[in-house]
Amino acid sequence: MSAGRPEADEPHPSVPDEPHPSVPDEPHPSVPDEAAGDHPDASAERPTAPVEPPEAGTELSAGDVVPGGFGWARVAGRVVPLAATGAALYLLMPQLLAVFSAFPRLRTFQPLWYPAMVLLEAASFACVWQLQRIAISGLSWFLSVTSQLVSNSISRIVPGGIAVGGAVQFRMLNRGGCDPAAAGFALTATSMVTTGIVFGLPLVVLPVIAFGQPAPPGLTTIATTGGLAFALLVIVGVILARSDATVRLLARAVTRLARLARRSAPADLPDVLVARRTDVIRSLGSRWPGAVLTAAGKWGLDYLALLAALAGAGQHPRVSLVLLAYVAANVLAMIPITPGGLGFVEAGLTGTLALAGVPAAAAAVSTLAYRLVSFWLPLAAGAPAWVAYRVRYR
Question: pTM higher than 0.85 for the full model?
Fold first, then answer.
């Protein structure tokens, strides 16, 4: 025992001479006595040895873990979205209160329109399930329905939940027997198709605005922006479908993001994505018109549910202007700040319906009835779908 060192720091008893696994017949190199907290028989040449926690008083860098085992990046990834959601809901609270305060006025809503709205929304979701079955060869109705309902519910509960919901559905499909890479690319393709359709809806209204009845400036801007976004999505989709280099570049970007998040990614990810992209395109094949029609049916039936909500409130505005208001609300719902666009949709829909000529009180009632059927009712269906899935795939 060296002078001045407490007895607790005395080195362990010597280990019998044995050959080192990687360097035969050589003893372990000694570690300088100044390395506080290290034992003399610790080897610097053993990279697989567990890393000891830092001693008290040692400063942690930004890349180290904080007490409790959470990395700084992970903590920021949880705190920042929650803070953004809280700030957005605070700013949108007046619009939310205006919509939810219309609950007493639902007594004046014509009740026969509720079953019509429920049936239209059920048919809209059925289009999504069929679209997934078109894109993923051999996908059963049960797996398509349960995975989509669970994913939809998670996306509308967790802030920025679109990515989380997609990851959950990906794992459910994988456990149900779908090829992981093919399912991931198919889900991306169906998402692009449905998003492209909603941006393309204003193109239906532009001729009416240009050659028929004019629209308010705000709705005209929505129609023009939607048309431009639709054209951009078509260009991106064509490039991804035809360019292997672009898909490989996307795969390398995903790999870098995974490394930044301290996650592993397959080394052959570029080749896998190219192959699965080709499989999805081949799977669609001659069925692509059916895929486009089912994607359009998803939005068209949901739009009819909004018209039914307006009719239940005794309003019959121009359908072309309501369509622009509908597109604006769904684009706002894609903003990954609040769950399911909560607050953004209510504020956007009531405002754009007012531009379409709907009185403020009737716009609030219609928006509330529409969101009850299109947002909250499918949200409640996620838990039974998850239970059914767990019973089937134990």
Answer: no
